[in-house]
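Ticket reopened. Same input as before:
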Amino acid sequence: MTGLVADIGGTNTRVALAEGPRVAADSMMRFHNADHDGPSDILAAYLARHGAPRITQACVALAGPVRDGSGRLTNRGWIINEQGIAKVTGATQVKLLNDLQAQGHALDHLARAGLIEVLDGPELPRATRLVIGLGTGVNTSVVHRHGRGLLVTAAEAGHASLPASDEDDLSLARFAAGADGFASIEDLLSGRGIEKIHAWVTGRAGMPRQMTAGDILAAGNDDADDPAVTETLRIYTRLLGRIAGDLALHHLPFGGIFLVGGVARAMTPHLARLGLAAHFRAKGRFSPLMREFAIRTVVDDYAALSGCAGYLARPA
Amino acid sequence: MTGLVADIGGTNTRVALAEGPRVAADSMMRFHNADHDGPSDILAAYLARHGAPRITQACVALAGPVRDGSGRLTNRGWIINEQGIAKVTGATQVKLLNDLQAQGHALDHLARAGLIEVLDGPELPRATRLVIGLGTGVNTSVVHRHGRGLLVTAAEAGHASLPASDEDDLSLARFAAGADGFASIEDLLSGRGIEKIHAWVTGRAGMPRQMTAGDILAAGNDDADDPAVTETLRIYTRLLGRIAGDLALHHLPFGGIFLVGGVARAMTPHLARLGLAAHFRAKGRFSPLMREFAIRTVVDDYAALSGCAGYLARPA
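Engineering reply: fixed in the latest deploy. New output:
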């Protein structure tokens, strides 16, 4: 039984073969979406380069909403459905997951070394876990255990309202909002959000400057202190703390919170010194409860593929 | 097999007997918490008045966080645990649920006539459902189907941050916040929240007035228009629309959203004319998705008891 697993992100698509719950070593390939007409084209190209192996099962993770086996890649408009995946791969068992759901299915298959501790906490082994994705987009998934299996939820959490708490937040939300005036969580916590925070910080100081999220995050690691970059990362940490705390109250993840995605990995070295714990726990009389939630960052950039493999090998 | 079911709220405790998945007719009694020392005292009083029936199973719903079979009544500080319930009832199977989880377990047992339509939508029969409780407290529960059973989640959603979106919201949040400056969703969407909104509206107009939530909601039904009351209900509707919309994006309840609790029932006649739909759906480029979520209000004030009975009779 050979499985095909794929992770269709906003910029790249990764494809690999799965053997049981593991991604087969050296089978992973990365494709730039901009070079291809759509997901079927990418899957066909992958299979052709691997000598057209016989595929019995396929699981694809998509950075966009999935319903009834069909989904749409949010940042590119590609449409994909399970029938289409079955047709191009020849698989008889096919599953399309939201990419954060795939990250949820990966949690049981992560090496301990692939996790960085952000906030210490109890992490009860059978309790609910929360995945927060911070990258090109922002989203969540909740992982519940039931019996021998998992129930992994889908969400569009990044499109919920940004919870402003003071005049600075309001000014920032207005700066980041779209033409309709609506500012979402994703508008500030995505990679694009870091760029907007930085543009707002430098604009407010009378020295407007444009930098990419990659350059801002790289400058944050520099020994030479750039005050606008530090202030950008400080505001990001404050917003992330408040929003992650709200998400913890919505989902009660006593099994832990797991940050995934490129922005999460890049921000992780800064979160402690910029005061994440205090912002996460500032919930009035419910602040003591917030100490029950551990936060870790998932280092493995290919976890969504592992999650797809884990999904295909799940208990019946 | 006779089951005991109870719903321990902030003000009252209701107790009844269950026969299979139904609450036994005429078995329900209501107790004022203020007249009793604690939940064991109430359960003992109920059983004594019913001739000490032999109880095999008991399920108790509590308005407060429950972990590992133990919970604390948020607004009164009472501690209750499953061992204590077993001791006073003699039941060998005992379950303590959060009250919103009990409401979630009730959904499959509600008569269609016990629901009022607030916002029309598809309501897919096997999809996720979201319960939003609006009363003395504010909280949520999410109901997932898996196989023949249900997975019903617990939350402390009312204690998440109030998502302010303009200067009026900030002013209101500061007015409603506790001494620590933190304003939660519950601070404005509970019965106490309606009182705070009304005090803020009348104070801002230079005519500060104190009214109870019951009086404000009753005045809202009056033909004689009271502008401060109408403005209070309008602000409540706007905040509820935004927050319920955010919750829909966190949980994707394609099976419907169900409002429960005394404030939900009292607000229901006002929600359409005060523009709930527009506030619920104002989510930028995700606004079209919001049309997929139906909202209904649960009329049955005893639904939590039905949920406890449903829990005891659930498939193995």
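Chain B touches chain A through 46 residues (CB under 8 Å). Residues 77 and 188 of chain B are 22 Å apart (CA to CA). Please confirm and we'll close it.
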